[in-house]
Task: inverse folding
């Protein structure tokens, strides 16, 4: 290979990657995070990586079986709904935290009281604020009191709500937990360098729960921000597993034939939100016809086929199809630039207009949308910024049009998405009283059919009014090294404890 | 990123006949090469719309990452297409405008600031000199990349913001060099003569000082232009440069980086273009210095 | 010498104060910091509480004085992102960056000085031209591009060195080369210029005329004199490098201060940003101060300045 050929050639460089050797001998599995996690305390970080650590280091009362979607007992062995706002849990006996502290009802009560107390400043309030408090019945029986009927409770209890050790947490607080996490989970923290490096070790004393013990003794997680560097390390065998690999790279890796590439659907949904309520000032988007024109103008299927790929699907719902109560038989707008132009002309924008367009990830998708909008005469100025900054501006109502995504914290219920954005909160661009009312009715009933009906009403109106342009579901590419056995799941959660060597 | 060059010793300025200079220029290989490459890039930038049959913004999602002709691609997109199916040649040609514009405008802003400060300090000396030296020290102590990143992050990455920030950050070399040069020129007899004759200060600075330090100004201008272009590319690479879909070379490198391991030509083509541009500007600068002040070349 | 030192020291302090004020002011233009800290789901009541708690309602000058006072005692506040003391985070990351900077400058000196000397001894020779060519080319290669290419060639294709991280000395080879070659052209040019000047000086000619060993002349007399400005330039370059290691650290996933700075910008973590701008500036000021002293010590004529 001449140097010029090497730099220019599209011949796959991986020909040269002949030295993959996972550290099976040393028993260490090497993984990488692509961003620095601010703290390991799961209640005080909002990163996806934090959720993964949550599942590895801690346990919830329940567990959602990723294959069947059914809820199983985890730290609880049994649970019953006493009334629509009370659940009683029988707790598993003989469980100890990594520091030897015994797990009892006190830990559940302490955790629930701590995280629901607004003074403690938990970051993901939506994950916990549906709980009122917990009551200890005896050492291994506890009752959870809800603020209102909340049908998605089980999913939250199987997901983000981790149970903390009361004595340890009272002593060290979120800062101590952030640097020296203690849970009951299948993996325990052996080393932690904030934001940079995590070393997890199998919890030898793990109870016989639905997650199962970790078959791998040691997991080493480094932070490597650049995807290329991650892939380079993977070729060299110094990383054993990659996830969130972009579609193009995943295709190439698969074509090499050496690695197993698994594509799994994710709960994340991409959408364009438009300032229909006019919070950002006078804009063409307050006109329904303009919003419908935008819906017609964007060829979602082509973006999906060309860029998103994988198991993604075009959606019209403001939630993910896998989520409970997320109706899919909704009206839609087909890709039709002529119709879009006609609608724009009808609304008085025959010559189009110029508008600020915000985005925070997947810049190529955003650019593709801009290309389609440009074709019907809508000029967009892209403001590509960090999520935190965009979110802040959106909440202040200063964003006329934005491409956003939402992963619902992997909670498999429509309320985790539709209710998040259409109930008059700061990120509700529609502010439609009828929709707000339907969702509130839905989320205060335990009648599943009635609930689904209300959600469908809301989702239908969102499409009819074109408050959003729901785009597509996301997918995740997992790439497995030659001697790794792991079955990726469709909830975007990498279960560190479920890895094994081939 | 090199920053403080040694201050070129300013020798007595002897007005050399133009012919001599031209002859030297024609014999200077670096100058010729730099000038030729620069001219080509300039022409491409000016005639970009005529030279490319596709718009740099026109997407074709079904024709993504088509390889260039020399890697087996088709002639309609002779440099291939990018990740959104846009014609790579057209983006490269239009991108030349963006890079040159950033270089020119940023260097102009810093030249205005830096040479004003430098000439004033060199001419007046004393307190003015102390104040300017202090400013230069403060400026040098600020980490350029970090400050530029922070400002662009705060104000958003428009072309104007990037140019302004770079312009405000890169004036130090102008000030340092022109200060030293002016100090030398000021000692010359005709400046003293002009002062005695009662010429106004602006006139002295403009007519007597500036022309005599002009060659230094031009050399530093080229250096800083190259510097600004590289910095913009670095900012774009870190995701905080000009906003897409503007066809900037830095942005093209940053986008091409995604496929570095599989489609390396995507990053090599704009990388080579950037390299050639910066190289030609630097060679041009070196050449001008050699030609205008041959005795200054050590 | 004492007066000179004091003068320079005074200047350094003034520069440091000005830079700190600029960095403090610059980052407060970012908008309401209370909103940034409050983060998601914060109500206006929360924001008011944070404003009071952090004292954002005080006059900017008072806040600056407070911050500066803290900085002098080593307290740079708490990171909004990590909720840890900024001093702890920054000192934790600084080691990697300083190591990288020191390695890079050594690399540059080892490469540039012999090249510069060789070029000066035989002006316009092949060596001279090659050195000049390398320096021109070196200045034109974008570091991020160079870094990625090195990873492709030396890590993936040849498998000689690791691609990222800072676990062993091997991890530092590529980043050192990428960061170091940037300082090479300037150092080389200065060495060459200095050597040419010294070699044409009277005392060298005299020494030559006396028939002293050429090698001895070259190294004992000429290089010693030519090296003064080079050392000074190297110190200054080192200051720049620390501030410029952002790109290199992000490519090679070195968790140093540069990478921390880049991440802090995207996380809107103002206390860390401020601290880093301050720290990098202080390094630069310290190095230039030391360079000045070194110069003055080796060349008494400069002490007047």
Result:
């Amino acid at each position: 290979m001449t140097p010029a050929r090497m730099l220019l050639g599209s011949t796959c460089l991986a020909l040269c990657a002949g030295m993959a050797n996972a550290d099976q001998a040393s028993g260490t599995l090497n993984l990488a995070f692509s961003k620095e996690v601010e703290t390991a305390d799961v209640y005080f970080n909002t990163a996806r990586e934090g959720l993964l650590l949550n599942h590895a280091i801690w346990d919830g009362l329940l567990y959602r079986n990723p294959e069947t979607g059914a809820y199983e007992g985890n730290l609880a062995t049994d649970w019953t709904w006493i009334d629509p706002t009370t659940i009683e849990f029988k707790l598993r006996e003989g469980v100890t935290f990594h520091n030897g502290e015994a797990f009892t009802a006190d830990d559940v009560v302490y955790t629930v009281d701590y995280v629901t107390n607004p003074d403690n400043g938990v970051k993901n309030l939506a994950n916990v604020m549906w709980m009122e408090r917990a009551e200890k019945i005896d050492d291994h029986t506890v009752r959870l009191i809800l603020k209102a009927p909340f049908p998605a409770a089980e999913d939250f209890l199987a997901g983000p709500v981790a149970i903390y050790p009361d004595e340890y947490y009272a002593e060290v607080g979120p800062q101590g937990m952030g640097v020296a996490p203690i849970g009951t989970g299948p993996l325990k923290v052996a080393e932690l360098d904030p934001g940079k490096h995590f070393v997890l070790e199998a919890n030898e004393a793990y109870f016989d729960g639905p997650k199962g013990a970790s078959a791998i003794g040691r997991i080493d997680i480094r932070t490597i921000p650049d995807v290329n560097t991650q892939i380079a390390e993977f070729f060299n065998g110094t990383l054993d597993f990659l996830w969130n690999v972009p579609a193009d790279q995943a295709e190439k890796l698969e074509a090499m034939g050496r690695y197993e590439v698994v594509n799994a659907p994710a709960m994340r949904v991409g959408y364009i939100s438009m300032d229909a309520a006019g919070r950002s000032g006078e804009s063409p988007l307050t006109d329904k016809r303009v919003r419908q024109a935008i819906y017609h103008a964007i060829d979602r299927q082509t973006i999906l086929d060309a860029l998103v790929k994988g198991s993604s699907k075009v959606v019209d719902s403001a939630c993910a199809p896998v989520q409970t109560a997320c109706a899919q038989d909704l009206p839609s707008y087909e890709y039709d630039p002529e119709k879009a132009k006609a609608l724009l002309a009808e609304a008085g924008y025959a010559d189009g207009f110029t508008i600020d367009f915000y985005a925070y990830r997947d810049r190529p998708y955003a650019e593709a949308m801009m290309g389609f909008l440009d074709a019907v005469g809508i000029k967009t100025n892209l403001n590509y910024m960090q999520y935190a900054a965009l979110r802040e501006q959106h909440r202040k109502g200063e964003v006329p049009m934005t491409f956003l995504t939402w992963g619902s914290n992997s909670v498999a219920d429509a309320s985790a998405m539709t209710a998040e954005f259409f109930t008059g909160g700061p990120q509700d661009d529609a502010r439609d009283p009828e929709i707000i009312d339907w969702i509130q009715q839905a989320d205060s009933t335990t009648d599943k059919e009635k609930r689904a009906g209300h959600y469908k009403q809301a989702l239908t109106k969102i499409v009819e009014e074109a408050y959003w342009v729901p785009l597509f579901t996301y997918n995740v590419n997992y790439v497995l090294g030659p001697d790794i056995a792991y079955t990726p799941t469709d909830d975007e959660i990498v279960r560190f404890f479920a890895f094994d060597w081939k | 990123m090199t920053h403080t060059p040694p201050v070129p010793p300013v020798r007595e300025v002897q007005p050399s006949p133009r012919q001599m200079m031209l002859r030297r220029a024609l014999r200077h290989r670096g100058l010729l090469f730099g000038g030729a490459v620069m001219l080509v890039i300039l022409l491409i930038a000016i005639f970009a719309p005529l030279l490319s049959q596709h718009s740099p913004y026109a997407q074709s999602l079904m024709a993504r990452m088509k390889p260039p002709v020399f890697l087996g691609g088709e002639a309609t997109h002779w440099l291939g297409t990018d990740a959104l199916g846009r014609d790579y040649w057209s983006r490269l040609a239009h991108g030349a405008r963006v890079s040159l514009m950033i270089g020119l405008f940023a260097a102009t802003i810093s030249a205005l600031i830096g040479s004003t400060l430098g000439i004033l300090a060199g001419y007046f000396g004393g307190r003015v000199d102390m104040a300017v030296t202090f400013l230069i020290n403060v400026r040098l102590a600020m980490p350029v990349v970090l400050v530029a990143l922070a400002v662009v992050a705060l104000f958003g990455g428009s072309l104007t913001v990037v140019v302004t920030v770079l312009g405000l950050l890169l004036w130090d070399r102008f000030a340092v060099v022109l200060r030293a040069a002016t100090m030398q020129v000021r000692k010359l007899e005709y400046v003293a003569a002009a002062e005695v004759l009662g010429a106004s200060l602006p006139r002295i600075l403009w007519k007597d000082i500036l022309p005599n330090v002009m060659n230094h100004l031009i050399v530093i201008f080229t250096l800083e232009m190259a510097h600004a272009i590289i910095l913009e590319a670095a900012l774009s690479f870190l995701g905080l440069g000009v906003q897409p879909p503007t066809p900037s070379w830095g942005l093209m490198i940053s986008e091409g980086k995604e496929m570095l391991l599989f489609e390396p030509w995507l990053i090599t083509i704009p990388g080579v273009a950037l390299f050639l541009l910066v190289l030609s500007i630097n060679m041009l600068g070196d050449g001008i210095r050699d030609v205008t002040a041959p005795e200054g070349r050590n | 010498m004492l007066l000179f030192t004091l003068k320079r020291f005074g200047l350094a302090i003034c520069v440091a104060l000005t830079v700190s004020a600029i960095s403090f002011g610059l980052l407060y233009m970012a908008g309401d910091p209370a909103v940034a800290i409050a983060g998601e789901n914060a109500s206006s009541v929360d924001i008011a509480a944070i404003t009071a708690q952090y004292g954002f309602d005080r006059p900017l000058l008072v806040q600056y004085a407070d911050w500066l006072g803290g900085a002098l005692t080593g307290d740079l506040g708490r990171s909004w992102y990590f909720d840890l003391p900024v001093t702890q985070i920054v000192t934790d990351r600084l080691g990697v960056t300083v190591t990288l900077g020191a390695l890079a400058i050594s690399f540059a000196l080892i490469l540039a000085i012999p090249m510069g000397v060789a070029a000066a001894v035989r002006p316009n020779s092949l060596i001279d031209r090659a050195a000049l060519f390398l320096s021109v080319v070196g200045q034109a290669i974008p570091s991020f591009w160079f870094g990625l290419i090195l990873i492709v060639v030396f890590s993936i294709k040849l498998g000689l060195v690791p691609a990222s991280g800072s676990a062993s000395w091997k991890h530092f080879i590529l980043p050192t080369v990428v960061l170091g070659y940037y300082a090479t052209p300037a150092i080389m040019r200065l060495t060459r210029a200095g050597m040419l000047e010294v070699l044409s000086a009277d005392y060298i000619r005299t020494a030559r005329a006396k028939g002293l060993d050429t090698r001895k002349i070259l190294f004992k007399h000429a290089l010693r004199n030519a090296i003064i400005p080079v050392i000074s330039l190297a110190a200054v370059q080192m200051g720049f490098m620390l501030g410029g290691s952002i790109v290199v650290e992000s490519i090679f996933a070195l968790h140093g201060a540069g990478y921390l700075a880049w991440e802090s910008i995207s996380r809107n973590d103002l206390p860390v940003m401020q601290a880093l701008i301050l720290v990098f500036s202080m390094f630069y000021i310290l190095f230039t101060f030391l360079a000045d002293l070194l110069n003055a010590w080796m060349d008494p004529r400069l002490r007047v300045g």
About this structure: The interface with chain A takes residues 57-59, 61-62, 64-65, 67, 70-71, 83-85, 153, 156-157, 239, 243-245, 255, 257-265, 268 of chain B (CB under 8 Å).
